Amino acid sequence: MTDTMATATIEADPTLPIIRISRDFAATPAQLFRAHTDPELFARWVGPDATTTTVDRWDASTGGSWRFVGTHDGMEFGFHGCFHEVRPDRIVQTFTWEGDPDGVALETLTFEDLGGGRTRLHVQSLCDSFEGRDAWLRSGMETGVDQGYAKLDALLAAGQIAEGARA
Amino acid sequence: MGDPLSQVFAALADPTRRDLVARLTDGDATVGQLAAPYQVSVQAISKHLKVLEQAGLVSRRAEGHRSPVHLEAEVFDLMTKWIERYRQRAEARYRRLDAVLAELNNDEEAGRRPAGEETA
To answer: What is the mean pLDDT of chain A?
Structure first.
């Protein structure tokens, strides 16, 4: 594939509880790696807009661990996990949203060098069940808040899928 | 888990039901036809279909094994919208990352300038 992915592409695997996202960046793999492993840089982009991210624990090395808290409208959302492996071209980590403390996803990030100062990021999230994966897809995960929610709720209220579900 | 969409996701959490849905994308089929490839009873498949029906994913004009089961495609459009919404959140995150990376690029270029030159 030589086309550039100007915006993120997503795939929800039908046979495994996996979400895959790819996105191209005007940066070298080293820069992209740094933006994922330097806690100050990471905190600046990870949270949704209007969310303040505070890194609580951060050891971006193989066997290390991390925790950060997003604050949105006075509500706090904690996330934590372990860095299973940290390499310049690949990060493998676990990911738990503390609102669902028993749930854990295994994330594999790879930085594919496209040359000319461009890098393709691949993120694969393997969830521990389809229910977990789908709950993740449908929830606002980080904050539970966004405009799409309101639209979708309106759609649901209009009875688009209500026939069979609500007699 | 009471809202309609939760029912849809819960109904699809089961591998047999996911498989049934996948097969119904090819066209309507009777319970007997749907049950044929499985090592389980027609009754067991009927139970799965009932869950899918309650979630609004499939419909049947009448009860009984000969009545064709129909997939309600618009429910999948809704799921596609959820996935798209998730994608948009990822895209928003990566736009912020674009800005951070652009700054790294600028800093690195600034670092290559002769000493003494001020950067903003």
So the answer is: 82
